Task: inverse folding
């Protein structure tokens, strides 16, 4: 890593705070203007952890100056950004769901039918194959772990450019998902298919059931106190599980060992969304498109910064391996 590279990565890292803090501001404004409230303990502890990690990163950078270790700064700093943005987006998805735009389940199901996707047949096939059902469940629940391991792995292997682009792409994808969900609210395919847990005992659909419970409650006003660790993924279109899988696979791609493993695990995550998550196939297609667009946008922004980096002083004095 040259001195110019170090400054470029530092600028992108600082720039990544802008959308994170902007979404935080939107959440605070929405809470102040509505009857929503956030249970303070879990949310406060989570945000305090993020602030502490970011503070350590900035303090190390300030005290050590050009001798600062970019691996430590970016590892702690980007973990802080990821923790903060995910803590913000969860409650924000509930707040925007209260807008109450008409549910679009029938429209989404009609698109699936038009492209020839038989969700019921797929779900029943998976139910008849418990090993496959278990593999898809494993893929579905893997959405959380990479959020913390990607900053650690990419920083440890000095892939700072990929790390900063990942955080920006993740934040863009989250913001766009929230905006789209206002206009395309939906509950999911199990409701229209008429399938219950008793019909598919080998398929774990608790994630869908959680959303099926919370979405109507948010829309009718009976759910207004939000507890961070009890929130469900209530956005159907686009599928953020799918978008996450694409982002994770792309982030890990240049890392030996991690790249091939991430490809397999995230392929399972994408395949799991219509079955475990109760998503429509069009949700999956939209999630893939969203992730690709977010990556392209992050790369474009990074390239714009790169063109001016040669005019800036050094940010770190430690070369990349």
Result:
């Amino acid at each position: 890593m040259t001195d110019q590279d170090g400054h470029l990565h530092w600028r992108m890292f600082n720039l990544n705070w802008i959308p994170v803090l902007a979404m935080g501001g939107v959440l605070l404004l929405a809470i102040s203007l509505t009857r929503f409230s956030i249970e303070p303990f879990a949310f406060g502890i989570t945000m305090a952890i993020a602030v502490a990690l970011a503070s350590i990163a900035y303090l190390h950078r300030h005290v050590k100056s050009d001798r600062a270790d970019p691996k430590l700064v970016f590892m702690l700093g980007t973990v802080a950004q990821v923790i903060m943005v995910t803590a913000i987006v969860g409650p924000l998805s509930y707040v925007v769901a209260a807008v109450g735009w008409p549910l679009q389940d029938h429209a989404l199901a009609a698109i699936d039918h038009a492209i020839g996707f038989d969700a019921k047949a797929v779900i029943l096939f998976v139910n008849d194959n418990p090993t496959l059902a278990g593999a898809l469940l494993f893929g579905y629940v893997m959405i959380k772990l990479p959020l913390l391991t990607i900053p650690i792995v990419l920083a440890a292997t000095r892939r700072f450019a990929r790390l900063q682009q990942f955080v920006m792409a993740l934040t863009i994808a989250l913001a766009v998902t929230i905006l789209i969900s206002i206009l395309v609210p939906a509950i999911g395919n199990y409701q229209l298919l008429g399938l219950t847990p008793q019909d598919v005992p080998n398929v774990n659909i608790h994630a869908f059931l959680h959303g099926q419970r919370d979405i109507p409650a948010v829309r009718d006003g009976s759910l207004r106190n939000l507890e961070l660790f009890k929130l469900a993924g209530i956005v159907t279109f686009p599928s953020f599980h799918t978008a996450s899988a694409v982002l994770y696979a792309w982030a890990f791609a240049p890392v030996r060992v991690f790249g091939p493993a991430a490809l397999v695990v995230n392929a399972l995550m994408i395949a799991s969304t219509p079955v475990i998550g109760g998503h429509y196939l069009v949700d999956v297609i939209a999630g893939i498109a969203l992730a690709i667009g977010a990556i392209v946008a992050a790369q474009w922004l990074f390239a714009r910064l790169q063109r001016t980096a040669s005019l800036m002083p050094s940010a770190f004095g430690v070369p990349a391996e």
